[in-house]
Amino acid sequence: MSTTEPATSAEREDRVLERIDKFRQRRPRLLDEVVTLAHGAGGKSSAALVDAVFVEAFRNEELEQLGDAAALTMPSGERLAFSTDSYVVQPLRFPGGSIGHLAVHGTVNDLAVSGARPRWLSAAFVIEEGFPIAELREIVADMSEAAVLSGVQIVTGDTKVVGKGAADGVYISTAGVGVIPEGRRLSADLVRAGDKVLLSGTIGEHGMAVMLARGDLAIEADIASDTAPVNSLVETLLDAAPSTRWMRDATRGGVGTVCNELAHACQLAVIVDEQSLPIEPQVLGACDMLGIDPLYVANEGKFVAIVAADEADAAVAAMRAHPRGADATVVGEILAEPPGIVALRTSFGGSRIVDMLVGDPLPRIC
């Protein structure tokens, strides 16, 4: 007869949690033979493509940080942030903005949440033959307006024209350079258990505004994109909470994916309170009708920040006094256990794991 005693309920639960943890810590593997829309959604498929193709080919210390911008140190000792992005949104114009606004705001925000003060941008255009000049002028005017509002200059660029049918109107790529103030550092390795999770405002507006603007859905709602520069709001936060650990703008993949990237990088638990999430009723209603979790919907003028617990109240108060931070709030906290996990405390008193985005429910929203 076996002398092994049967496992207790607690032991069985520990083994299950251990298997789940090991599974979640595995890096996504690229198994696809062709590129799909999911590879551009900012979730698991994107991570697998970036890791297996681009990081593998270009591997270096700066790239492997996989931040919104690379932090570079000049021979003089001055630190710069450098970022690039491309914009393929359809339709080109939507309530609250256009591809031109996104092209500036997106790169400015990537620099800002990396701790830099954005200064200069480049802009490259791929234009389809037959695209109306008048419409191109409007897009460029939007970019000029956005640059002035953001306090940056567009100082260089490029233009390419492709045959009719080879593009979808116009695609824009921007790159940006910002200056990182002396002594400022934001990194996932600074995050500690007990820190607070802040959101700079309501979530989900951009993704829902673009989806509804396409006219493919029988849904009418007064939703406008939140596209806006966040660099001034970031400076306000850092003045009020100088020990801020980490920031990321929640674009593709939304807040849920950003929190998963943080949890994986710092190997701590990110716990979000569902009742604290600032979501406009019309956005929540549209998400419910489409069966989409607002945590995964893209934003273009909001960011997630991790701040020290003793600075959280001052941070929220300062942000709410800013024109773009009226709805800033603490939405969660960092815990030591379970490491690498994002969990949502539901309004019903339970909890559920928030995994990284799988697939692409909202293609081409930026």
Automatic annotation (TrEMBL):
<dbReference type="Pfam" id="PF00586">
    <property type="entry name" value="AIRS"/>
</dbReference>
<feature type="domain" description="PurM-like C-terminal">
    <location>
        <begin position="192"/>
        <end position="340"/>
    </location>
</feature>
<dbReference type="GO" id="GO:0051604">
    <property type="term" value="P:protein maturation"/>
</dbReference>
<dbReference type="InterPro" id="IPR016188">
    <property type="entry name" value="PurM-like_N"/>
</dbReference>
<dbReference type="InterPro" id="IPR010918">
    <property type="entry name" value="PurM-like_C_dom"/>
</dbReference>
<dbReference type="InterPro" id="IPR011854">
    <property type="entry name" value="HypE"/>
</dbReference>
<protein>
    <submittedName>
        <fullName>Hydrogenase maturation protein HypE</fullName>
    </submittedName>
</protein>
<dbReference type="InterPro" id="IPR036676">
    <property type="entry name" value="PurM-like_C_sf"/>
</dbReference>
<feature type="domain" description="PurM-like N-terminal">
    <location>
        <begin position="68"/>
        <end position="180"/>
    </location>
</feature>
<dbReference type="InterPro" id="IPR036921">
    <property type="entry name" value="PurM-like_N_sf"/>
</dbReference>
<comment type="similarity">
    <text>Belongs to the HypE family.</text>
</comment>
<dbReference type="Pfam" id="PF02769">
    <property type="entry name" value="AIRS_C"/>
</dbReference>
